[in-house]
Amino acid sequence: READRRKREVANLNTLQFMQSKAKAIYDSILCQYLVAALILLNFVLNAIQAEHEPESLGDTSEGSQIYRTLDIVLTCIFAAELLLNMFGHWFWEFVLDGWSLFDFVVVIFSVVSLFIDDIPFFSILRVVRAFRILRIIKRFQSLRRIFNAVIHSIVPVLNALFIAVMVIAIYTIIGVFLFSEESDEFSTFAR
């Protein structure tokens, strides 16, 4: 019944909207999300292996460095295609208002730019952004999103607890200075 309603809606759309709905369906499919998650994990593992075995390989032309470079280009192109599919399927407000989509956009754009301006010293920092690709996996799994959101929401309460702990320590430090400053040099000032 829901499928029939969906078919009628799709039939009433113009060609562009039809193509967008297909792109959205493909992008939102479980298969696509798992495939992209697997590629993100693969990319993370490759970056970790490269950082461990060839940390100085930025300008290196050895065969090993070329393999990493080629794999990076291939994965960046795949991620760029995935971003374009997401943008086309969820255009405009649905894409712009989704924080994870914007995060994907920034990471992928920096990754693409870093492929072309790798040799410029100031822009070599863009290569570091590739390490953040792993965070894109949070978007793909509801359970990871829940954990991530819980961590983010706990920052303020943890900082409040830290503030209270620092106040208690400061109070006892002041008391220690007043009571024991004449008996020991360790209690002569607040900083000690």
What is the gist of this entry?
By secondary structure, the protein is mainly alpha-helical. It contains nine helices and no strands. The chain is flat and about 85 Å long.
Query: If helices are DSSP runs of H or I spanning 4 or more residues, what is the number of helices?
Result: 9
Distance between the termini: 75 Å
**What class do helices, strands and sheet pairing give?**
mainly alpha
Shape: flat
Helix content: over 70%
The count of β-strands is 0
Low-confidence segments: none
Q: What value does the Rg take, in angstroms?
A: 26 Å
| Average residue pLDDT | 84
Question: What layout of secondary structure does this protein have?
Answer:
Layout: H1 2-12, H2 15-28, H3 30-53, H4 63-89, H5 93-96, H6 99-116, H7 126-129, H8 137-140, H9 142-180
Helix pairs in contact: 2-4, 3-4, 4-6
Structural account:
- The protein has helices at 2-12, 15-28, 30-53, 63-89, 93-96, 99-116, 126-129, 137-140, 142-180.
- The chain contains 9 helices and no strands.
- The model has no long low-confidence stretch (mean pLDDT 84).
- It is mainly alpha-helical.
- It is 76% helix and 0% strand.
- The longest helix has 39 residues, at 142-180.
- α2 crosses α4 (63-89), α3 packs antiparallel against α4 (63-89) and α4 (63-89) runs antiparallel to α6.
- The termini are far apart.
- The protein is flat, with a radius of gyration of 26 Å.
